[in-house]
What does this fold into?
Amino acid sequence: MLIAAALSMTSALAKIDLADASVERLENGLTLILLEDRTFPIVSIQTVYRTGAKDDPAGRLGLAHFFEHMAFRGSKNFPDTGLVSEIYAIGGEWHGYTWVDLTTYFATAPKAHLGLLLDIEADRMTRLDLRKEDIEAERGVVIAELNGYANDADSALFDALMATHFLTHPYRNNTIGYAGDINAITHADVVDFYERHYAPQNAVITIVGDLDRDEARTLVRKKFGGIKEKTRPRAPLTAELPRTGERRVRISAPSDEKLFKIAYPAPAASHPDFPAFLVAQALLGDSAGANFNQNDWGTPVGAASPLAKAAGDARTWIIPTVESYAFVISGSARPDADETVIERKIESALARLAAGDIAEIALRDAKSKALAALAFDVETTEDAAHQLAYFAGIGALDRLMTLEMDIDAVTANRVREVAREYLRADQRTVAWLQPGPMPITLAAATASEIEEHKGAADRSKRLAEPALIENDGRPPVFFVRSEFSDTVSIKAYVNRRISCDACVADDLALDTTTISASAPAADFASAFASVISNIEAATAKEESRASDDPLARLEGEFAYLAGFRHDNTPDVQYLRFLQMIAVSGAIDPEAAEMALIAHIPKRDALTSDVSRLSAFLPNEDFEIRIDKPLAQEAVGYIAETPPGDRRALATRIALYILSHGYEGRLGKEAISRRGLAYYIDAAFRPWFSSGVVTLSAGVDPGKVDAFKALLKSEVARLQTEPPTDAEIAEARRHLIGRKISAAQSNDEIAEALIRDVLATGGPESAAAFAARLDQVTRADVLDAVKALQKGAVVTVRGEGVN
It folds into this structure.
């Protein structure tokens, strides 16, 4: 009786009740779903188009996903990147994704801005600015994303699995597509896809949050009612051939372990068997609900599951789809493990589910897991909007509305019937990944990518090799003549923290500043003079590290703890702090040399007053107090890199694996999964042959302790769960890719020159960088991981914090 009560309470305690949603269809075919929830003064909007990877035409696989990227670029009323920047500006958040059946765009913002969110979606539906000149840039972005997946062994195995599990149905296709097809996509393809699929009768708009339903309905009708229904038909989908027995596939890729995935047919979300299948999944291990976003490519089964006895890291996976898709069991094993034994144990577990008695207590426990997971599916307005729009998009909204009751009504006999029908050995597809070498060597891949990049952009004819201009008694000027833009950018590097409108402190190295200026090439001399005058004025003022901004204060403390001791007292002899200047633009070297002579007097020595003292004590916690309340505090981590070129590169690889932007082990856990921070800045600051690693994040006061604990845990996990070969390979490709693609504008080229000088003493080509990177071994990376353990956590807190 207690268990039954718990099941009924799951729905009763839900914060957002989907049953209160209203559904209607406008005259032009647009489906509108509205749900009021006044818990927070926000609104969430989800716009779903009933088009996805299954609609990609032959020879253009990945087109739906490519178009999703283009749909964030700009529109008639929101040019450039206004479709996203306007949402940032109002304190909202946005994103989108493409999958086999649907493409989804979503945003959450303060409720007063519902009109803006609808304006954006109306423009996306019918007024996108699909510029031909943007195609190549977006192609590069998509290819880079594709390469990231290609480096992940698990993703590669999944693609092989689906391509074998389906022989004719387009569910077999990789959503992101393939390089050959992506490279073939034209502007005409993009426009045709837009005209064929982005129409009101093919869309669902769901709004959930603090809204008045009548006012919201009127607003939607005003902004979307005038959009005409399009009549271009969708291409018919090829049906899947009947299965005639087991299918197998084997691939090889860099991996520390064997990986396997076994797929069985699974019912569509609208099928009567779907609720019983969710209960069967819970009986085999656990449940992740019925949410595409939450499922995260596999639910761990738990130690008590019979699948756990088959292999380590056993997971199950199922998502709601329009047509029959797949139920996948995944796992890993030692390279020498017996595959037959693993498969036999899995089949034994499934056979017991299909043939044996299911105890009532076990059935109730499985239902409880499934219902609890459904509650997590709709924790927020964004969650609820997603579920309503998603299920409406796949034609299964009625199933969503009754799913809790349907699960509660599942019997042991229904589970047995589902297992017997779907989870049969003659219906399965078995995929194994054997650890092996990369298909081509890193050096060969690097050279190929560099040449491909040069050919695509034709930069070799418009970007000269870097040159060094030296004049006795003056700092060096590193110069690149570029002809792709009639502009020039100048960056000066100063060995102290200074403050000015054109100054950026601590960006390239700790306790240093870069001063920048960009101008038309004809104004180069005056731009150069402005950089020098900024240095002169700023270095005459005292600069303190005791900033009231928590992140700026964190940077100052990093420099102090790392042992940097620059002389930051006022000094009119500013030239002794000026270390180098980098110039990139459409000017001649003679002009740069003339500016150097005209604006910088000679000095007796090129050394600056700077010393490096002993560094911080490792594994210490330092807390800095700012004497004022802070809406957001700061948490950071700093560790020193041992001297040596290979160690520095190995550290950059380890740092990438730990955190990069929103991703990496720490980034993914802290941001995507736990919401502890918005962004994590991970940086390697070179110092001659060594360097300093820093991580920093703005963290809300109530989350500081949790973020600190997670940070320490993830740093430690780098050693207890060392980087995999796949992670290292991805980091290598990232570093090479960024070396090739990051420096494109003159400002970026000038900054890259300074970074090269700090790292190696002079400019470095992509090929030379790749060659150095190729010398880094796995052992080097593991040594870098050990060095990262000897770091310190720094917290900057406001007043009143215990």
Notes: The chain is about 40% helix and 20% strand. The two ends are 45 Å apart (CA to CA).
